[in-house]
Queue: 3 jobs
Job 1
Amino acid sequence: MIWLITVASLLGFLVVNTLANQPLMTGSALASYDAKIWSVLSVALLIALLINVGLYHGCKRKQLKRASPNPALAYRFTLPLLASFIFLLTLMLSASYGLYHYKRYENALLPSAVTVDAIVESHQISDTVSQMSPLSNDNALIGNGFIKQILQVRVDKGGDADSSSATPPPPLTALISANIKDNPDWEATLSQLKPGMQLNVKLQLEPIAKPKPTSLANNAKPLMLGFDEAQWLRQRGVQAKGVIIGIEKSSLREFNPSHVKDLMVIAIEQLRWQLRQKILDNLHTTLLKQSTSIVNAKNDTAQPAFQTSGQSSIQSAIQSHAILLGLLTGDKSLMDSDLKNRYQVTGISHLLAISGPHVLMLAAIVSILVLWLVKWLAPQLLVKLPSSLLVLWVSVVMAGFYALLVGFEIPAQRTFWMLLLLTLSKQLLVNFSAYRLLAWVALGMIWLEPTAVGQAGFWLSFVAVVLLLKFSETIGTVSAAEINNVSQLLAPTARANVLSSFVKTISHQFKALLKLQIWLFVWMLPIVVWFFGKVSVIGILVNLLAVPFLGLVVVPLDMLAGVVSWLPVVGDWLSQIIWSILTTLLNVFHLLLNKLIDTGVAKQSFFALSQTQLALCLLIALLGLLKGLLPRMLMLPLAILLILLPLQQRSLNDNQPTLAVGDNPKLVISLLKKGDDSWLILSDNQIKAAQADKPNFLKTKQAIRNVAADEEISSLLNRDIYPLLANQQVHRLTGVISQTPSVRVNELVQQLAIHVPVQAYWLAGYDVEHSRLDVTDKGVSTSFRAITPRSCQTAQRWQQDGLEITAVSGWHLNLALTDEQKLATQTCYIRIRFKPPTSKPYDVLMLAGNSDIPMQMTEKLCTVSATHLLIQPYNLSIKPSWLALTKPSLLHVVTGTYKSQKLGEDSQLSLASWSVDKPAEHSFEVLYADQVGAVIYTLAPDDTD
């Protein structure tokens, strides 16, 4: 019964979680919601459960009296019907409570933007770190130059807040960011804003962007990609986003929490902050030593190779300390996108998070130590409290403390609650199976926090435990032959051959571990694909090395260093020695991962599952795991159907191409797909293209790697490009087009080509004669290590099966032009035309850049004509003459969420004028990316034109 209620609750909360992403359905559901429904359903469910318990025990008593294993006919039909009724009641009750939880959160959100003088209180450590580490002759940036932290905002009533805006009621939970790159004098003050302190600041608060009910064209539909920020903020109870525009440095002070819960939370967060500072201190010491070596190597001209390796070792040290910090406290503030991507490509990203074994390891060590002390100092206590119960209760206390220390992440929560329930069952002499304990824990967690059902960690954590339990019952069971082999190893006659016995034992353990990895990989594949859209090819093999290394070596030593760091006098010295050893080991481990990636051994495969495919996968999993539910022969036709569904979708794509357009206003990312051909089109639309490529946020006298630029590129790959490729099931690219001369885009393409095969690469501004990117800043170096481009210039064309891609602009002119004009003339406008044999063509024109010079030149040279779909960035002005020339039926403007990323007044006037002056028979519609998000268009010709 407990599993029935748990499954029904999961389904109910999943329904609400799905509705939260569909504003039209959410609005109607919330409007018709009545809190009384929850009370009525609760009472009905309680009555049904009591009746079920009574019938169940009555059935058992009648069976005992009749001495028959078969229940009475009435009970045989009554109990299943009542169970079905309880399932429906639980489903409705969980959905009702989920709606109530969501409505309460919606009502607490900031309604509109506001600029206020406020007091911000820190109740937890920051999500990111941005510090300058002093080196031997310069500084190195740790982090990306931005600080993000969830803070409690209390409006300063005595300040000069903008009275015309709606003032948020204090306190308000907000995700606050601060730009340290442009305001370096803020760094010292904000770095000391630890939990339990408050600061007077001036804030620009913005409401959280939510999906808006916007009608789309007939050939367009919304595209859900990558990271869902709104869902992430809801899971953390964040009510607004804000940016610090001014701080009062002298106002940094401590505050007294008003609630006991806040006091406990702040105490735990202060402990986490102190551990972070200890690891950062060790990192600063390491960087100082390495920078000294770099300077010495720089003075020694005979060691250029050592200079290069020394420079890369700085980034390696930061990433190794990021692993140590994450495994010790669950703090991921030092983990950059490059590190996360490296672990994802090799299939070990799950090791970056705190897991149940980490918690159990610490609990086991402490409980054994306490048991030893009790036996030595007070053995009489073991008479009243058996040693097994003592170990369990100490484990519960330590697991709870460690779970709080790591931020109470889902795996740590699961381990703590399972330990607590197991201990209580032993204390009360109640026999509970592991499966029932797991169901109780899952049921409690989702009712305490309904948003947990939308987190990948929840599903991966609980499904992994179920699979491990099942594995221990089936594949993990030792056969009679294996028992005979092990007994032979332990026999006295075999003790002489120690080496042979050791090899056989290791071989036996390795086979069991390999079976376990294959088992977990196969059965957890649907969940990984659903949430992440990509799978590592060699993940099984890398896990065989990574799991023992991180679990048995790094984690215990990391915990030991954290404990001894609190010892007086020698604590810091001992902890730095241990962390230095672990840093060296992790550097070697990361070097091995880099070799696997650079040689092409480690690659990712991109997949996407529809809701129908996910349901089929879950049904197949249930058939495989649960005996007697349904005949297992049904697995074969279901598997065939699972394979045929994507083949059917692929046949549809072979007939009509699709164009997916992203919603990133700075770098527009589009994907054109038809059958096996896929083109990735990139447009870097920074306001000052020449300066956008300059790493001006990190001023160093020595050649230290530009960490922030690498972080930005890795973030673009992981949050925008990889999810897009996974959603469209693209495993290789026919080509990549960079419409603007951009060093940033080129570096992105070079990293992409390492993981995804790319056949062709068109790069605007590429000088074929000198094999370099002809940007105005010759000091900016470019690299073509993975793929060599060809110049994207006017009249360049690709054609296949009725689909044609043509560059209608892009010139290399030997004229006396300014840097901005030269970059503008090299910008490529792309025309896409799809012409089926029996229909009219469908045209798409994709603009790029921020200058209207290419627009004027194409208009004069007559290289453009009427088009159906016109895509352009927000910072490119719209001219009435251009609209009259192209006559678009649909204008897709890639705007952003900020005011500076909207259309200018001249463009808005042009659109208003065109809407009035356009031909009466010509339809015209404008879509804005900040309102509709990412969109995918089907390039279907309209024969009614």
Job 2
Amino acid sequence: MQTSADRQDRHQYPAHWEADVVLRDGGTARIRPITVDDADRLVSFYEQVSDESKYYRFFAPYPRLSAKDVHRFTHHDFVDRVGLAATIGGEFIATVRYDRIGADGMPASAPADEAEVAFLVQDAHQGRGVASALLEHIAAVARERGIRRFAAEVLPANTKMIKVFTDAGYTQQRSFEDGVVRLEFDLEPTDRSLAVQRAREQRAEARSVRRLLMPGSVAVVGVGRAPGGVGRSVLGNIRDVGYGGRLHAVNKAFPEDLEKVDGVPAHRRVRDIGGPVDLAVVAVPAEHVPAVVTECGEHGVQGLVVLSAGYAESGPEGRERQRALVQQARAYGMRLIGPNAFGIINTAPDVRLNASLAPEMPRPGRIGMFAQSGAIGIALLSRLHRRGGGVTGVTGVSTFVSAGNRADVSGNDVLQYWYDDPETDVALMYLESIGNPRKFTRLARRTAAAKPLVVVQGVGSAPQGHTVRATRLPHATVSALLRQAGVIRVDTITELVDAGLLLARQPLPAGPRVAILGNSESLGVLTYDRCVAEGLRPSRPLDLTTGATAEDFHRALGAALADETCDSVVVTAIPAIGEASPGEAELAEALRSAAAAVPGKPVLVVHVELGGLAEALSAAASTAPQAADTAPGAEGGAPPFRRPVERPPTAPTVPPEGTHLIPAYPAAERAVRALAEAVRYGQWRREAMDPGKVPEYDDIDEKGAARLIGELLARGEGLTIPDAETCGLLGTYGIPVRRALPAPTPDAAAEAARALGYPVALKATAPHLRHRADLGGVRLDLADEEQLRRAYAELTELFGEPEGLRPVVQGMAPRGVDTVVRAVIDPAAGAVLSFGLAGAASQLLGDMAHRLIPVTDREATSLVRSIRTAPLLFGWRGSTPVDTPALEELLLRVSRLVDDHPEVVAVTLEPVVVAPHGVSVLGATVRLAPPPARDDLGPRTMPAY
């Protein structure tokens, strides 16, 4: 008789179970199924496990595995018996297995839905979160194979393993019998298990980035023997800023007797370095990178920054080279920035790391910066250098990451780090592509609730070097979803820096009310106009006249800040001529002291860059490096980020802790745009504290909908269901569709009208006429059979035979505003609910608003009000307001349908007539398909490569 253990090929090897994971300490491991080829690895792994751990696993001394044990633990059918291993460098560091059991506790097959699970973790890797990661993956495998419940028996002294189970967040039962703790838990994800999983994900990914940005030792691989070249330049950049750790130069071509390069210890290979290396910066040709990665992995290097080009950005061959690079780095448990990266910077005083191609280090500050390309990274640093000064001091950078092709470490990882980084108050990101929009949106929402996140998102296709998921959503829709998540979306690098400087220096405004004061009436009026255009509520500008003194500015600003009807202040200033005119420093001090006396409201300065005023506001406090910052031994030459103007050799002002710096802008529109973004973000933060709830409706028949969906999908994959079934499915969620009857002949039309009752509408539903009332394919308010037959004749005369028109008769709905409601499941972004007015507003002008599903009651309310044509719903120009609460309920019901049943991949309700009392759905289409994979609900994994 063939046993389960002998049926290795009962199912093909499940390659989709393979995954890379980030562990608790920031390292990585690979999880994969155990196969018959792993016998030697299993024996070697077991030999490295302590006797105590073996005792905890087998409840008795078990010094070695027998041949029978090895066979049983390596032969699986991948259904009833499954084993997974966590590996680093190809070797096992932990294993987990389950065996399906029946009600009697004996081995069983489906439909039995319970399994026993057991772990074994190598002692050297205990405490790294390996068991927790394996539990997530073995649970996902079990659910896929129809197992709904795990049981585990653990010795009471094995507190670590008990904690793994109890901390997982699953619904559990615990008992104690015969000296053994028995744990039983359901595998269905719960809110708590997902929260635990995501908290672990955040900590692990944040630590993996922290290890890259805060290394205790760095090796630059590829340092040239002669001055110049990428490797030699990066080595100099790290050395010259005073890096606090151990620094090494590596080049296999170094002479054996060479001890130092530019004062840095020199080595021919990484393995020749006498101590640990936390970070390797790789600057060798792409064909030599694999050998370097192998050396680094064998030496225990924790992370790589690969500056080398010649990867996915160069074409298909380079893409395969990049894939191999990522797999090789992960095999050794290393995280990777790049390839084709510009580098990383950390300005923390105890780190001072400039492992980048930027020859100058930005001043320390509270702004985190992320860019994918080196050119954008240079532009960001340059603009922040020029704009970094303020009335009361400087604004600088905490950390900077330019990820290049971002084959491994991405913006998502850096967001995880910034979320709880105490050195970063504002995050600025330039994203040419978003690899995982669903995860990015989730992380952005959480980050934005704690600190501002400003993003420029690329409009075109992703750069060739980037591997991203395809999305069917337009760029404007993705931008709207980012805003919904609290992201401050701007369009240019200039706007990115403008908003970042304001948010890093000033408190958030409590509302849209803006006071404007200054010594230029024209500049004040221009600022007023821009405020109105941005949706702010400015007060009449206060003109202090060109003769205003510093004391006048101080008094006016203090009064404006003290005014309870003011939420923020914009000060406009132009250079004035005359003995009484304030000097630059005097005016700056007047504004600073007034703002400090009444804190809590943001202050911005709009200045005309003439004379020395701009210098007083920013030059002496610029983030651009001063000559005094250059460490001994640095090479000379003009730094590329310095301002072209000369400045006095005074040291930059360092504001006291808690001081708010006043940002200055050279144009009113830039200042007001930044302020408007801050106002909108402040409003989002306040609303995020009470996001609303997803309401329950007693009349929803979730089980009935599931049964109908199952029957329809049995007919075939991916189908637009017929009208009758569409009405039935929507009806289970309390969404009635006004009945429409086919009218292939005039007599059939008359019979349909008698069944529905007059008045009726006659509509052509052919694809080229559907929802096109402007073409004349609709006749409304037909009061009797005579009018109906006349309308039928007119339609056939205009558009042809009934077979091509597909006419239908429908009862008249109350008059109102025609709208459209859509829901779609995008493979990258997830389920999205959209709303707009039907016709030209949505089709021609793109006036649609979007929210991620599930939608809360507060989000439904804001969705209705987000479109530009929303006034038409609320009594514009004396029209009767329509029933928006009924419309919001319809949106919530559609959201519930798609969220409860992921097989519903698309819903369109058009038109939806919103009347003064109630809504009428006149047309509906529903598309079903097998549900797409939800990787955000599955176990933690790194992006597949």
Job 3
Amino acid sequence: MTTATRDLAGLTARLAELAPGLRVETGPGATGPYAYDASNYRVPPRAVAFPRTADDVVAVLRACREAGVPVTARGGGTSMAGNAVGPGVVLDFSRYMNRILDIDAQARTARVEAGVVLDALRSATALHGLDFGPDPSSHSRCTLGGMIGNDACGNRSVRDGRTSGHVVALEIVTADGVRAVADHAGLHALDPADAGAVARLEADLKRLVGEHLALIRTELGRIPRQVSGYQLQHLLPENGFDLARALVGTEGTCAVVTAATVRLVATAQASTLLTLGYGDVVEAAEDVPQILRFAPSAVEGMDEAIVATMRARRGPDSVTGLPEGRAWLYVELEGDDRATVNARAEELLDALKVLGRLTGGRVVESPAERRSLWRVREDGAGLAARLVDGGESWPGWEDAAVAPADLAAYLRGFRKLLAAHELTGVLYGHFGAGCVHVRIDFDMATDAGRTVMRRFLSEAAALVVEHGGTLSGEHGDGRARSELLTVMYSHRMIAAFAAFKKTFDPEGLLNPGVIIDPAPLDTDLALRELPLVETTFGFPHDEDGFAGAVRRCVGVGRCRSDSGGVMCPSYRATGEENDSTRGRARMLQEMVRGEAVTDGWRSTEVRDALDLCLSCKACSSDCPVGVDMATYKAEFLHQHYKGRLRPRSHYSLGWLPKTSALAGYAARPINLLLRGPFGKLLARLGGVTTKRRIPAFASRRALRKTLRAAKTTEPAKAVLFVDSFTRAFRPQVAGAASRVLADAGIPCTPRDGLCCGLTWVSTGQLSVARRIMARTVAALDDGDDRPVIVAEPSCAAALKRDVPELLGTEAARRVADRVHTFTGALTDLADQGWTPPPLPGNVVLQTHCHEYATFKGRRPADLLRRLGVRKVDEAEGCCGLAGNFGFEAQHYDTSMAVADLALGPRLDQLDGRPVIADGFSCATQIDHLAGDRDVRALHLAELLDPAADQPGETT
């Protein structure tokens, strides 16, 4: 046992003594994801603790002080400056200390624990017509504790300013484990026994401020976004010694915040959004002073690279409502009524037209368009990280701010500086507050590249200071900029900052290396040169293959959202970082790196991290950088089990297309056998849960019969690919699809006996998958260029994406280009004059995750509305079954927890409405959830079948 191991064992034992029941995790499988945040840095912690109460935090701080171990507080882990990683114990507040303790609507305040996600607070306060003003783009996963740590602002900072302006009181634990409350009148002990220590601390702080009055008054608080350093101006006598505001923005270096009382604002009665187009971001910045005269609530800017990447990743319809231009401003105006707001918007447009810089401008009326546009801006950090041309960009200088009137001049100088260093930056940010976010194509993997980065950052710091600005406008200094504070502040001010920290934390254990005594900014960089990893998948969109693919994750954490999109179902079910797309990607990065995880593809830690991934592929669409965890998992499983015995379910479920084809020759006796005790025994032997009923196999005769009945005399315009699931379990869907397509002017010829290889991909049997796929491609790539229509969305997605990426041949790409889902075929290929049979006015829809992720802009919900269904109640999220996942015995509970997030509640409130689910796994999950209720999920083809007497009565 090494000394480090003994020390860690001693620390965990002491923690168990001081805080029985405190969850503490050690080892690379648990701590690996916590070595990263959304910055450029990697700092592996010794342990991660998950406090449930402030007393747990006290115990951690006391034990760590005894052992001399640093402590870093962490919320959502979305810091871009490296403020949320540390070498000792990381306190994850987001897991358990995430309760809203009180909302006082009359006083317009809320008391929350540090781990409360901003969107959770906003949802709760919205019931009272109130909101929390600061709204960072990460609002769906950032925590109030993190916002307090950074002094975060957000998109509407023109109106609402910084978090510090909304904090009433902070409940803190000091480095020596003393609990206190900091408010506008100073510091107060929560335990009378600590009153003397707290009084001495407060007296020392007042003495420090008294010794530096002139310095604080002249160097701090000069511009609205001056977040760099410590905000000691709030302790000046004229500001009432407001210690709560002074502690905001200290990045966990002075005390650990466990809870906060925050001030709320009234929700606007009416608002409107203008989109303004410009030739470039400098011209956009020139107009900001004029725009600010109209008292907007938000003025946000971005350049064309972000928009192009969004359209490439999520389809051309993902960004609508932008006027012509190469850079854009979003301007939001608010007021008491829509008429007044719209009149101001038109007046502003007229005023900007006179200035002559606009290339176009419009008021965005549609709520859907507004949501789409804000989504582009909010995903800016991720979209800019991996652009449509494959280029990578990084933070490091992503948060500088100047006075808005100086923004254009600063940007001109900044672009010259980029050009001088032969760097490219993607610009976006809070232009109305003078704060510019930029991601730059630094080369941090080589010594030469790091030298260029260091030189650039030093010169950028001098440039922003020359323009009267600040190194950080809301992200904090962290590891990225703390070294540069000497460029911005005098040596006396730096000394005052150090004295402030030492007063709170004399031993320097709280988030060391940040703000005070910083490490060089190029220390602990995560990126480095790595050897190429040989894989079966080609990863054609990533220059460094698998290593480049997993490096897509830059930690922005959208996968930790509880709502919006589909990603990440397992995180939404468990709430664990390691079960998020980000957590898994970080573990794969650790594997490729080979330091903490040393056994490569054989790693059990990585295997366990990937275990609850449902392979839903939602991350490939919802993740701003396009992480595709389903593909990474398939590759890992292939390599991990190469030459070894696999889990039983890989054989029983992975080979289902073969076994189901055989079962079709004796379907009736096999189904009878499976319904009895032998079926449960067989399930156990195959690693399959006995809590589900095994779907009944269809006979070969049933398929032949249904296809004969659907036969048309019209010349075939397309190929109907009869996939393995449709053939084996619901052949009636093939018949209905054939009839609907013929009715829509797309008569098809059915093609049976082929397979997409999906089940072998999802279980990581890629060598078999390639053989299956190669046979299918050879059969389909026979000179026929007709569309290939696939009723089963998961099989369509496999043919569209997995086949070309796994085979890498021109033939595979030609076949993929021809593939359409059933929805896509009716959207793109149907006769213009086609009208379906009468449809119900209200349906429940479960969209298959693979269809959602792969076939952008071809959504069943949109088609249903276009065909006349008035209300489509879509269960937004994964059904939870996800192919083999929910049938595997060890995954049943997670599968049901995922189902309960969206699908289950829809079925509980069905009220006779039809349920539409094109995916076989979705339909199977619905059947399982329905139990004894008379509910059967319909394929869209069954709903539209012209031969049915009523919707869904397909024969």
